[in-house]
Amino acid sequence: MLSIAVRRGSVQAPRSLQKAKSRIPAFDLKLFLDSAGLGRRLAKFGASETVFAQGDPATNVMYIQEGSVKLTVVNECGKEAVVAILRPGDFFGEGCLAGQCICMATATTIAPTAVLVIEKDNMLQVLHSESEFSDRFIAFMLARNLRVEEDLIDQLFNSSEKRLARTLLLLARYGARGQPERVLPQVSQEMLAEMIGTTRSRVNFFMNKFRKLGFIQYSKNREIHIDHSLLTVVLHD
To answer: pLDDT band for position 8 (50/70/90)?
Structure first.
């Protein structure tokens, strides 16, 4: 988890960035979900398919086993914003547990994706009966809330260059449990621009700058390889 702290009007990188440790307890969540008697089904999607759309009935919690999903929101004027990129091990659709009747965002796959679809009532049942799973889910939701707060601070106080560097590191899961992923999922410059609130031309400018400085590299199939030195952009005042 990347986070930032505001001090004397400037944005500082916290210890979580430097130590790169996760506080989420060790728990084989995938094994539990595969073995638990939940009312669930495995849904498989190709790339660029809609899992659910903004305004659809909110009835299930979903868990990504493979692939990646982006969450987007469209306002009344038709402007679309990417609010999250989710990877294996992430939940989404959890708003139904808090009483949401409709989906507040559209979930679209970025790559071929396998999603475990858990019915709301069964999810509530297992949260009450399985304390270890409940602890893991609560930790995930707290981390998600912290991420939203950090994104807001990032948007308010950081330059677009820092916001882009932070987003790339987040996509590479820098600071998560285990080793960071050096190769990013398939993400376009347009999508990155939507995520950090700037234009594609600005993203292109900074991506070329990062490449020249050795912070990122492009493979022959245009995958983005992240070097840990990109962190210096976030840490630099």
So the answer is: very low
pLDDT tens-place string over residues 177-200: 656 667 776 788 998 998 888 999
Are 53 and 103 in contact by the 8 Å Cβ rule? The answer is: yes
Go through 133-167 and write b for each residue having 16 or more CB atoms within 10 A of its CB, e for each that does not: beebbeebeeebeebeebbeebeeebebbbbbbbb
- Rounded to two decimals, the pTM is 0.70
* 3-class DSSP state of 25: coil
Least confident piece of the model among 30-44, 74-88, 221-235: 30-44
What are the sequence ranges of the domains in the chain? Answer: 5-23+159-235, 37-129
| Fold of the domain spanning 37-129 | Jelly Rolls (2.60.120)
Do you know the residue count of the chain?
A: 237
Kindly tell me the number of DSSP H helices and DSSP E strands found in the chain: 8, 12
CATH architecture, domain defined by 5-23+159-235: Orthogonal Bundle (1.10)
